[in-house]
Design a protein that fits this description.
83% helix; mainly alpha; elongated
Length: 228
């Protein structure tokens, strides 16, 4: 079967589909990346103060962790239905839902990262006159970065997958192509959009891993010493 006939034959792998629908694929990918990036960024901005609140005020830890876990258990259709009166059929609806889903991963990892900082490092900083804010930004956060970045990577990969659910309101990036193709069982579109979703998740994870290695050079030194 030649390339021109693979669309008519509804083949899974079809070069003609890639050539004829390239702009649709680009537009869907750009929307997918944009929704994912904005959702994770806002999720991080929301999760950070929540984690600090839960850590500094033990009485709030249970409610914060319980609420974020509860939000994660809400089915996506129900979540979007609850948010629909506030955002309508917009990208804001999908982004808000994804932000809420990301909180349980981000909050827990931020708390875990800060709790993993050795107490002797805190005591040494206090002995040098560091106040709470300076202690947080110059000592605790740098030492907690590996755990924080691990949580951010998990949240990002999870959000890449969950973004496809936004197709139910027409704001799902590559999920829009998958949903449309499933109705007619358009094999090439289903496979291509699905593979692109997987590739986006892999690329995002590798990029964040690279950022983590740049921000935590001491972990590379420690690993090199362990290997030698």
């Amino acid at each position: 079967m030649n390339a021109q006939g693979c669309l008519a034959a509804n083949d899974w792998i079809c070069g003609e589909y890639l050539r004829s629908r390239s702009q649709d694929l680009i537009d869907a990918t750009v929307q997918h990346v944009w929704i994912t990036a904005v959702s994770v960024a806002i999720g991080l901005l929301v999760a950070f103060p929540l984690a600090l609140l839960a850590r500094s005020r033990p009485a709030f830890a249970g409610p914060v962790l319980g609420l974020t876990t509860l939000l994660y258990t809400i089915p996506s259709l129900a979540m979007f239905s609850l948010l629909l009166p506030f955002f309508g059929l917009s990208a804001g609806l999908v982004i808000t839902g994804l932000v809420l889903y990301s909180l349980t991963i981000l909050v827990r990892n931020i708390i875990a990262g800060l709790d993993s900082v050795p107490e002797e490092a805190r005591e040494a900083a206090r002995g040098m006159g560091y106040g709470p804010a300076r202690l947080l930004w110059e000592v605790e956060l740098p030492l907690a970065l590996p755990t924080l970045m691990a949580g951010l990577r998990i949240a990002t990969v999870s959000t890449v997958a969950l973004t496809t659910i936004g197709s139910i309101v027409g704001r799902g990036g590559l999920g829009n192509l998958i949903a449309d193709a499933l109705q007619s069982f358009f094999k090439a579109q289903v496979l291509t959009a699905s593979v692109l979703c997987v590739l986006l998740a892999i690329v995002a994870d590798l990029l964040l891993l690279g950022v983590q290695r740049l921000l935590t050079p001491w972990t590379r030194v420690r690993t090199a010493k362990a290997v030698s």
